[in-house]
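Entry under discussion copied across for reference:
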Amino acid sequence: MANQSRRPLFSTMLTSKLPLVSLFSTFLLSTASPISRLGPSTASNAPIIFDGRVPTNFSESAFDSSATSPFNPDFVRAADEPFSQIIKFPDVSPSLLDGRTSRPIEVTINDNSIFAPGGNPQNGFRRAELLPITNNGTDATVQGITTLHFSIQEDPTKSLNYTHEYQPVFIETNDFASHVWTLKTGTPFGTNPASMPESEAKTLRLGSSTAGGAEEVVLFEVPFDTGVWYNFAIQTDWDKRYVVTDRSLWILANLYCVAQSRHSFRPTTSHSRKWSLLVPIILLGKDKVCLSHFVSGTLNILILAHFGVLKLPTLPSTNPSQDGIQEVGIDEGLIYGGIFIEDTSENPPTLKPC
């Protein structure tokens, strides 16, 4: 596991004095007719190459078969817990891009959520994650320019234990040794929970690439408020090796603005890659969406996407996947919606409400 710099590039985004600009660009946000689950969306001409949005008439048992589930029914989960026991249908409003025919889902974990790849139990983790069934590391979702969409929300009835680190969404290299980027929440692994107030731990943080042994840098973080959808659109150019993220600008009526600032920096490692970042100020509103760009390093290796709950242990631990403290009585979950991937090689991504 790569070391992580805990100093975000913009630690006080709300107070940064940066000019506001309207998003009249390919990332324009506006009202639009509902998007279709199949083929090009009415909000964009970009074809959808993977659609993980779940129809309103879907049942839990549909997640157990590759014939019916948009996700791999075998990974990542405990061997004796099928996804029909892991996935729940929470009573929440649809996310920004769920449309009228899709419903949010919840990925849950418990004391028995121990994944055993190759028969080797990861006793330090508690985890359950959905992997797109089409995602084999060389499929269309990692060719050309793609945009990965997802929305995430906390479930106050299955609250996380923020003394632990969680990795809800990440793109993993196929050697399982590094991530292209990682969305995290909770107390960073290795940090004494007593030294971090919950208000600091209960944040969503986007970590940079650790591919090639690079040190992870916190690109931005935002409070993980209860009852709010956080809407992400992450665009990757697999040929030019860069990533663009559109993450939670606060929507204010029908006016969409973002504050921008370009910065360059180098990770504190021996690597000489240069990184750039475009970071927004968050505006007051209800649903969250924003715009940031960063170069994420070398991406010329097979890639696998994960959506769910990966809970790391607390110390003492010599290897977080194998040992450490996990309290008894785990009943936790995270709510997801609007999971789909577009081919945006020729067209801008969908960033419009349904």
Q: What stands out?
A: Residues 1-42, 246-286, 288-301 have pLDDT under 50 and may be disordered. The chain has one domain: 4-343. Residues 183 and 199 are 17 Å apart (CA to CA). Residues 83-86 form the longest helix (4 residues).
